[in-house]
Amino acid sequence: MDRDDEDFGEGFIAESHPLRPTHLSVPVSGRPDSRAPSISSSVSDLDVPIYTRETTIPVSAGKGLNGRLAFAIAAAALGSSFQHGYNTGVVNAPQQLIEDWISNLKQNRTGEPTKQSEVTMIWSIAVSIFCVGGMIGGSLVGTVADRFGRKGGLLLNNVLVLATVIFEGCAKTAKSYEMIIIGRFIIGINAGLNAGLAPMYLSEISPIHLRGAVGTVYQLVITMSILVSQILGLEQILGTEDQWPLLLCLTIVPAIFQVVALPLCPESPKYLLLSKGKDMDAQRALAWLRGTIEVHDEMEEMRAEYESVKLVPKVTLKELFVNPALRIPLIIAIMVMFAQQLSGINAVMFFSTKIFTMAQLDKTAAQNATMAVGAMNVVMTFVSLILVEKAGRKTLLLAGFSGMFIDTALLAICLAFADTSRAAAYSSIVLVMTFVILFATGPGSIPWFLVSELFNQSARPAATSVAIAVNWTANFIVSIGFLPLQEALGAHVFIIFATIQAFFVFFIYKKVPETKNKTMEEISSMFRQISYQ
């Protein structure tokens, strides 16, 4: 069978053009219209589609979420962002167990007692190299997305998960902490690629009015997977001396799910048409995702975009920085990525257990409270999924960062007195929870998909590579710089984060456009106009 005749499932016909309705103008008053059939030009008339041939295939299935689109979203997000979140949080709970193993292993190798500073250094490398891998993976997003496609890139990326499981799963048996470091590096590359490929795929398969909500799913799954890693890492489950290698290896489960589920879904219609010029394949893919053959309007929009970009050479990294119409959205993309990571969320999450301990909670209660914060992060990210299409991207970013600025300033004050004041300690708990709520409602989720909204098809892969690499670089800076700053400044370290947040509030207010319900051509046109001013 020829590729152009391949079907992605029932629900649409194989002709190159789907059925198109003739429009019957029916006056609202109920009076007959002698002009029918015609296209109504009056706002008081109802435009009723009359299909010219009989068919049992749905031609007007909902423009919103349907079962097939939901399945494609789950296949892409659960198999990709789960790796990102799970491997971010999985090393926290068994940290002491793994450090003890490293200490004993090194002592057996050298025959001398291992210094704690040496163990700390090895552990720090194992944790932070995840971000280094993320930087490399992020920088490869454009190349992989163009060569293998969004879906193809996601599927191929699971090879790295298998390699990670082999290294981390065999590390204890092989008596090699170096294998843990290598595994963390490899899964970092995987997470960096996923951070670009998955939001790109989700954005390109979504209807315009659901683009933000679907894009938020990536961050939602990250928060869910971090919470899962915290729960599984409890001593009562897998956080034991014998079971921690299994805890690390469970990252293979979402990869298996994606390898099974994603092949049942089509490639991004925009990639098929705009990058490969495959009109028929794009139409089939879009019809599968919408659950209807009536995708004429969306296809026409994509064809118009295709006509505007097909004569333009593929955008290079150099052109992103040289062309004003591309440089402006690139700067915005870079800044929102910096804003997300430099907001202080990682620092607040790090401090959370200590803050709960300051409030005189015992170790178990403090650990449970930390998981409650993680659960709240999940809930509020889900809330942002609903709000993003109602309030808009810019509004949620401004509300989130403005609230975080006030919250962080108050947290710095309360933490300074938390050791001596019970009220300050309890206030710190409230402020930590408030901070997480504010972060989750916008700053945590929007940057991931905003990048895909700011660029057209020709520039999107290269721009995504830059933005994702910047995000992981900022993550790395915070991970290696926070502890020294915290030791030197104590609670005053949060003043630095508050200052950074204030700057980003100003930047977002002045420079970040609202992209809600805008087509790619409208967004591109907006930046072209700005560049000529």
UniProtKB/TrEMBL annotation:
Mode of membrane association: Multi-pass membrane protein
Region (Disordered): 1-42
Record-linked InterPro entries: GLUT, MFS_dom, MFS_sugar_transport-like, MFS_trans_sf, Sugar/inositol_transpt, Sugar_transporter_CS
A matching Pfam family: Sugar_tr
Molecular function, one GO term: hexose transmembrane transporter activity
UniProtKB keywords: Glycoprotein, Membrane, Transmembrane, Transmembrane helix, Transport
Main subcellular location of this protein, as a coarse class: membrane
Localisation: Membrane
Top-level taxonomic group: Eukaryota
Chain segments annotated as transmembrane: 121-142, 154-174, 180-202, 214-232, 244-265, 328-349, 369-388, 395-418, 424-450, 462-483, 489-509
One term under GO cellular component: membrane
Domain (Major facilitator superfamily (MFS) profile) ranges: 73-516
Family as reported in the entry's similarity comment: Belongs to the major facilitator superfamily. Sugar transporter (TC 2.A.1.1) family.
UniProt-recorded name of the protein: Major facilitator superfamily (MFS) profile domain-containing protein
Organism encoding this protein: Tetragonisca angustula
